[in-house]
Amino acid sequence: MSPKVKGTALGIISAVSYGTNPLGALFLYQEGLNPNSVLFYRFLLAALILAGLMAIQRQSFGLTRKELKILCLLGILFAVSSLTFYTSFHYMDAGIASTILFVYPIMVAVIMAIFFKEHISLVTMFSIVLALSGIALLYRGGTGVGLSGVGVLLVMISSLTYALYIIAVNRSSMKMSSVKFTFYVLLACMAAIVVHSFFDGDNYLQPLTTPRMWLFAGMLALLPTVISLVTMTKAVHAIGSTPTAIMGALEPLTAVIIGVTVFGEAFTMRLGVGIFMILSAVILIIASKSFSPRKIISFIGHMVHAVPGRK
C-alpha cells in the first residue's frame, strides 16, 4: 500500500471515528448520566489507554514546568469545547450540533488574520458568508422548528474554544510524541471536568453502574478519542495537514447519519442544503491554502473538456 493510499485511509478512519461522539454520548444520556460524568469517563479511560501505550513504548512521563503550564491551558480549552458541545445535545439534534461545530477552521482563519496579521483572501470571505448562510438554514431545525438559542450559543462556544486550542497547539514550541502530548492534555481535561462538577449544581460525577454504561464509555474513549487522535497524526505525516483536514468533513456527516438512523432525528431538504453549504465553505477555505484560484479554475476546465463526447 502506497503512503498516499495509507494516509488517505487513516484520514478517513480519523474523521469517521471522531464523528461517533454523539453515539456514545446520547446512549449514556439515556442511561441517566450528565455531561460532566460522560466526559470524565471518556477522558479517564482514554488517558489510561495512552498511558499503557507510553509504558509499552517506554516513553518518559517527565515534564518541565513550562510544558506543564502549556498543557494545562490546552486541557482547559479542550475541556470547555467538549463540555459545551456535549451539553448542546440537550438542546438540538446531535447531527446539527456536529455540523455547526465544523465551522472552527473558519474561526481559525479569522483569528489568525486579526491577531497574527494573516491575509484573508476572497475565498476565505466567501467561505465565511457561505457558512453563516448554512447555519441560518440549520437554525430552523430538522422539523422546521427554530432551534434553541442556548444550544446554538453552546456549539459556537465549543467551536471557538476548539479553534483557540488548535492555534495554541500550532504556536507552541513543545517537542514530544503525540501520544505523550495527548495523554497530558486529556489528564488536564479530566481535572477541569472534576473541578467544574463541583460548581455545576446537581451535575455531579455519577458512577458507571452497568456493563452497558462501561461499554459506551469505553467506546467514547477508544473511537472518537484515542483512535481518532492517533490516526489523524499519522495521516498528517503521510499526506499532509490539508488533505487530512478536508477529509474531516466526514465528521459531521457521520454524526448526522448516526442521528438520523440510530436516534430517529428528522432530515429535511432544508437541513441537507444547510449541511452542504457549511461543508462546502470549510472545504473551500482549507483547499484555498494549497490551491490558487487559477489552478482550481484550470482543473475545472480540464474536467469539463474531458467529458465524453465534448469537443
Can you offer a commentary on this structure?
- The protein has 311 residues and is an all-alpha fold.
- It has one domain.
- It contains 14 helices and no strands.
- The chain has helices at 3-18, 21-30, 35-56, 65-88, 94-101, 104-116, 122-138, 149-171, 178-198, 211-239, 241-247, 250-261, 269-287, 293-305.
- α4 (65-88) packs across α9 (178-198) and α5 (94-101) packs parallel to α8 (149-171).
- The relative contact order is 0.21.
What is the topological layout?
Layout: H1 3-18, H2 21-30, H3 35-56, H4 65-88, H5 94-101, H6 104-116, H7 122-138, H8 149-171, H9 178-198, H10 211-239, H11 241-247, H12 250-261, H13 269-287, H14 293-305
Helix pairs in contact: 1-10, 1-11, 1-12, 2-10, 3-9, 3-10, 4-8, 4-9, 5-8, 5-12, 6-8, 7-13, 10-11, 11-13
Can you tag this structure with a few keywords?
disordered C terminus, 311 residues, mainly alpha
Short description:
This protein is 75% helix and 0% strand. The protein is mainly α. The chain has one domain.
**Ends: how far apart?**
37 Å
What class do helices, strands and sheet pairing give? mainly alpha
- What are the secondary-structure elements, in order, as H or E? HHHHHHHHHHHHHH
Shape: globular
Give helix % range.
over 70%
Task: Kindly give the count of domains.
Answer: 1
Q: What's the overall average pLDDT, rounded?
A: 83
Question: Main β-sheet, in a few words?
Answer: none
By DSSP (H or I, 4+ residues per run), the number of helices equals 14
Rg, rounded, reads 20 Å
Q: What portion of the residues fall into strands of 2 or more residues?
A: under 5%
Strand runs, count: 0
Outline the low-pLDDT stretches: 306-311
